[in-house]
Write a sequence for this structure.
């Protein structure tokens, strides 16, 4: 609905009545759902508005300054977290490449197989990283391996979805040309598709790395390695100076990784 | 030459005498019905001999593209027999079909090259059908293939661009890449589906001249779709006219008159049907391409 | 056929490019070698067989009817999770509009740099960290979760909204300014109608993300299904983990389908 200049004449209606009513209905529904959610969570609007200043004060007065002496103890788990994220991204990116071709309709022309792969992808993407971590802790035990495996699966879900969409939207011309000259599917992929999607693939991998670094913080809470282990320990001891040190370090490191990754991705565009 | 019926004993005899009728491509009652019910081709009977330069004309939607794409089965006719180099390609399985396709080069209206790849790699893609899968995946082409590719780039006059990204070339040059790619297959047949429809008139003529020249040099059977009448007259040895999926004209260029085209188009000839001479330029100038 | 000297598929790199490639290879090898050396690749699997664990995780929750009575409880937790995400995104959508305008170059002017830096800072903090801080500040419960989700969503929505605003055509705005409208009027009539569908679409998309993110909050006491999940994990109660997984997958799928359908109609 594009609004033009207001018009007082009776015959011209700016927005039809039915449209107005349906918009009103939708708005009412959205607000009612919010009221229900607010009751459930006790997060009423005025409490939300009150909440942010409280948090700001808490951060300034209680969290700051972090315990500087604790930083040395943070470094080892931090490296562990980075390693988990790095390996998870690497393995995930490698595995996501072939899977993405199976999940692209212009490459995988077997409709049933394509649908099964898509369905599997959709299910995979609904599972949050924390549950993936718990599943792998259950299967391979406490340690970094569970974390790496959880992030590998998470990465396959992220890259697989984005990349299969990129593959489906490549210029179909070169694919047609290679097929017409007698090339098989693998050759079509290698010489017509991959050259077209390589920048996106690299970009999605970096994007996954950013997500994985943040996600790997969670892993330690369920025993899947990384900085989350000491974070949950310090939290359970209410040792907020040390918690603040961990948070501060994480913030700096994630900002640096995001910055580098964003710069690299900009160059890939 | 008068077309002989397929069942004629003469045909059979002639076909086995070298130098006589040597049909490389033969349509026997070929029809194609698209899944939406549209009939692309209706009972086409056609013989194309080795070394001919055939131009197919007709209005858009007449089935030109369908006819050309049937020959390498990029579309699959629904009935009849289509003999290419002695084999009915409608009966072939996927891997046999790929084998046949390696002998058929194809040139497209939109060039169909990978713009992010170098010119040489695009041309080398023509060797894929002759290269083992594993070897091609690694990108380890035999030196001989590289020599073939480079020679063909030279023949279309862009060998000094071999390592340049294809996107940095003009439209006419990009179409030359795709001609070089088709030649690098070392095919018997070249199919060109509206090869110059995206180019301006002077470039169109240059590209068509190149195409005609190289196909003469290699003695290739060439089948081209064109929708400009004057262009068809200039380059064809033989004209095939299509209307609504029916073959309505087939004859050597000497027999073609303006009236022939009016029959094929089922209406008087208009200026739009003519491309114009080489000197005229158009808005779609090559400089528009980066 | 003309015979060329040995032809390469690649042009040989010039000096600068060679250095560039070498540097990249060195940096990457360094990163991976450090990671390989410092990661203990040992599996601490318990004596229980993997197959048995798999059965407890994926088969038991579905076939064992004794477990069914636990489902309503988990569905309740999941509804709380969704409520946290919904309340969070509702607040975030409202607050992200002014933030987005402020961070947009064509509206915020010089302020946009500060706005963008702030939004980048927010996005660098995982929602779990926000949840930890908020639980400490306002106490245990879903209320802290809502705050964490909303501030985290503002970080992303503010950036996306700003990008939408930057991409709109400025003629409408200029027209309203030319007809004597002030800054707020020019935003309300010139920009908002153009960007509203995209804003709503992004909010729905973020809501999908928030539902997944809210499942984590419970492990630090910020409400939702994360609480029974971490409890079951500590108790090695894989049947319950499996049941929670089933509930999460079903509800998240439902929300994705619903939200995806609405987003398709919006554009």
């Amino acid at each position: 609905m594009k609004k033009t200049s207001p018009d007082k004449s009776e015959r011209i209606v700016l927005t039809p009545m039915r449209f107005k009513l349906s918009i009103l209905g939708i708005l009412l529904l959205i607000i009612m759902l919010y009221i229900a959610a607010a009751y459930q969570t006790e997060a009423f609007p005025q409490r939300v508005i009150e909440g942010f200043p409280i948090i700001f004060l808490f951060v300034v007065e209680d969290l700051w300054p972090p315990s500087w002496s604790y930083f040395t103890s943070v470094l080892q788990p931090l490296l562990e977290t980075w390693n988990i994220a790095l390996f998870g991204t690497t393995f995930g990116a490698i595995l996501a490449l072939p899977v993405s071709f199976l999940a692209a309709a212009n490459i995988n022309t077997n409709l049933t197989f394509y649908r099964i792969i898509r369905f599997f992808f959709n299910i995979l993407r609904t599972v949050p990283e924390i549950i993936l971590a718990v599943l792998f802790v259950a299967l391979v035990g406490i340690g970094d391996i569970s974390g790496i495996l959880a992030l590998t699966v998470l990465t396959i879900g992220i890259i697989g979805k984005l990349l299969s969409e990129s593959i489906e939207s490549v210029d179909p011309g070169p694919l047609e040309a290679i097929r017409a000259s007698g090339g098989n599917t693998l050759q079509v992929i290698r010489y017509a598709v991959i050259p077209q999607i390589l920048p996106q693939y690299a970009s999605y991998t970096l994007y996954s790395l950013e997500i994985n670094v943040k996600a790997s913080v969670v892993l330690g809470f369920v025993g899947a390695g990384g900085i989350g282990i000491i974070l949950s320990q310090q939290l359970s001891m209410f040792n907020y100076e040390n918690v603040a040190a961990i948070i501060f370090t994480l913030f700096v490191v994630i900002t640096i990784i995001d910055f580098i990754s964003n710069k690299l991705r900009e160059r890939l565009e | 030459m008068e077309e002989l019926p397929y069942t004629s004993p003469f045909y059979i005899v002639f076909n086995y005498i070298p130098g006589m009728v040597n049909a490389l491509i033969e349509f026997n009652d070929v029809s194609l019905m698209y899944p939406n019910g549209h009939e692309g081709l209706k009972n086409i009977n056609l013989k194309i001999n080795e070394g001919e330069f055939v131009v197919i004309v007709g209005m858009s939607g007449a089935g030109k593209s369908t006819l050309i794409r049937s020959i390498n089965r990029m579309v699959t006719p629904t009935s009849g027999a289509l003999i290419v180099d002695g084999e009915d390609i409608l009966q072939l399985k996927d891997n046999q079909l790929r084998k046949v396709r390696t002998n058929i080069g194809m040139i497209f209206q939109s060039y169909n090259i990978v713009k992010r790849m170098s010119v040489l790699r695009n041309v080398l893609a023509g060797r894929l059908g002759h290269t083992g899968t594993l070897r091609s995946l690694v990108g380890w082409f035999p030196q001989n293939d590289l020599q073939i590719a480079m020679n063909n780039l030279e023949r279309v006059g862009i060998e000094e661009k071999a390592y340049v990204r294809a996107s940095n070339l003009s439209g006419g040059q990009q179409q030359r890449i795709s001609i070089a790619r088709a030649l690098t297959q070392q095919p018997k047949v070249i199919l060109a589906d509206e090869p110059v429809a995206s180019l301006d008139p002077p470039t169109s003529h240059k590209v068509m001249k190149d195409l005609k020249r190289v196909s003469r040099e290699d003695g290739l059977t060439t089948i081209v779709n064109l929708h400009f009448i004057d262009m068809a007259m200039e380059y064809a040895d033989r004209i095939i006219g299509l209307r609504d999926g029916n073959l309505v004209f087939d004859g050597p260029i000497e027999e073609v008159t303006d009236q022939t085209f009016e029959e094929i188009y089922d209406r008087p000839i208009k200026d739009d049907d003519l491309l114009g001479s080489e000197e005229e330029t158009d808005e779609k100038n090559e400089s528009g391409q980066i | 056929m003309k015979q060329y000297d040995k032809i390469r598929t690649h042009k040989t790199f010039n000096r600068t490019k060679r250095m560039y490639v070498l540097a990249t290879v060195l940096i990457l090898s360094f990163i991976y070698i450090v990671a390989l050396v410092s990661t203990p690749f040992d599996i601490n699997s318990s004596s229980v067989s993997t197959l048995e664990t798999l059965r407890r995780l994926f088969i038991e929750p579905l076939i064992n009817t004794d477990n069914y009575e636990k489902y309503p409880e988990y569905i309740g937790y999941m509804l709380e999770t969704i409520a946290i995400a919904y309340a969070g995104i509702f607040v975030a959508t409202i607050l992200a509009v002014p933030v987005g305008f402020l961070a947009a170059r064509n509206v915020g002017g010089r302020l946009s740099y500060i706005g963008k830096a702030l939004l980048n800072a927010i996005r660098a903090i995982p929602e779990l960290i926000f949840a930890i801080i908020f639980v400490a500040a306002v106490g245990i419960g879903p209320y802290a979760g809502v705050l964490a989700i909303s501030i985290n969503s503002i970080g992303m929505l503010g950036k996306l909204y700003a990008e939408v605003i930057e991409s709109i055509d400025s003629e409408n705005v200029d027209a309203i300014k030319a007809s004597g409208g002030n800054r707020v009027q020019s935003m309300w009539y010139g920009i908002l109608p153009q960007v509203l569908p995209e804003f709503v679409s992004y909010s729905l998309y973020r809501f999908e993300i928030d539902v997944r993110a809210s499942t984590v909050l419970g492990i630090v006491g910020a409400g939702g299904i994360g609480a029974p999940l971490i409890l079951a994990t500590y108790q090695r109660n894989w049947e319950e983990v499996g049941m929670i997984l089933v509930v999460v997958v079903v509800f998240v799928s439902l929300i994705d389908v619903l939200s995806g359908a609405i987003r398709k109609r919006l554009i």
Observations:
- DSSP finds ten helices and ten strands in chain B.
- Confidence is low (pLDDT under 50) at residues 1-8, 14-19, 280-290 of chain B.
- Chain B has one domain: 50-76+102-288.
